[in-house]
């Protein structure tokens, strides 16, 4: 797997592998609405550009046997940067957080475990992977949040909020980890699954 990333960082259309140097997504949603939680960040990202995934390193891979129903891949990305338009409506402690604008979000040492439940589907006499369920527990070493134009352009409040989120990025991830992981799963679905599902699974085990 590391060889594939190393050889094709710009992608390969033959097996639907995207360009990992610059990944573009239309929309990503992260939402936490628990009224009792001190942190609620309900936001949407649009016109997303992600860089850094071409430096991903696979640490382990399990379950890639002929009759397996589960795959698990553990990997780490040294530095991931996301540029996007955003809309946010949430709460930080007692302070409402609201705004629309441009955001830049970085994650250092992003650790991801991809858990993939599959079934096999016959096409043209061969077995192909069909995704049943995908889990992606994730955690970065630290993160930086830069929501531009929060509070209708109030720079003092915006800078203070971004600073609190960044300086407490581990607590932010602990509070929002499940929601962030669902967002990462959405990215994985768009990037990885087309490649996995377009190749005949039988060919990996040809004698």
TrEMBL record:
Q: Which domain of life is it from?
A: Eukaryota
Locate the coiled-coil region(s) and give their ranges: none
Q: Name one Pfam family in it.
A: JHBP
Q: Which InterPro entries match?
A: Haemolymph_juvenile_hormone-bd, To_sf
Official protein name in the record: Uncharacterized protein
Q: Which PANTHER family does the record cross-reference, listed alphabetically?
A: CIRCADIAN CLOCK-CONTROLLED PROTEIN DAYWAKE-RELATED, PROTEIN TAKEOUT-LIKE PROTEIN
Entry GO terms, CC: extracellular space
Instruction: Give the range the annotation lists for the signal sequence.
Output: none
């Amino acid at each position: 797997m590391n060889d594939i990333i190393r050889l094709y960082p710009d992608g390969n259309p033959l097996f639907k592998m995207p360009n990992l140097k610059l990944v573009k997504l239309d929309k990503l949603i992260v939402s936490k609405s628990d009224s009792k939680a001190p942190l609620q960040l309900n936001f949407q990202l649009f016109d997303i550009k992600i860089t850094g995934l071409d430096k991903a390193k696979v640490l382990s891979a399990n379950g890639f046997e002929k009759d397996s129903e589960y795959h698990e891949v553990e990997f780490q990305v040294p530095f991931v940067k996301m540029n996007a338009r955003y809309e946010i409506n949430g709460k930080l402690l007692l302070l409402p957080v609201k705004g629309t604008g441009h955001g830049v979000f970085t994650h250092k040492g992003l650790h991801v475990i991809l858990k993939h439940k599959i079934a096999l589907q016959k096409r043209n006499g061969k077995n192909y992977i069909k995704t049943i369920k995908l889990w992606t527990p994730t955690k970065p070493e630290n993160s930086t949040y830069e929501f531009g134009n929060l509070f209708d352009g109030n720079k003092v409040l915006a800078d203070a909020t971004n600073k609190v989120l960044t300086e407490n990025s581990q607590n932010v991830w602990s509070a929002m980890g499940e929601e962030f992981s669902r967002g990462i799963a959405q990215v994985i679905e768009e990037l990885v699954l087309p490649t996995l599902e377009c190749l005949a699974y039988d060919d990996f085990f040809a004698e």
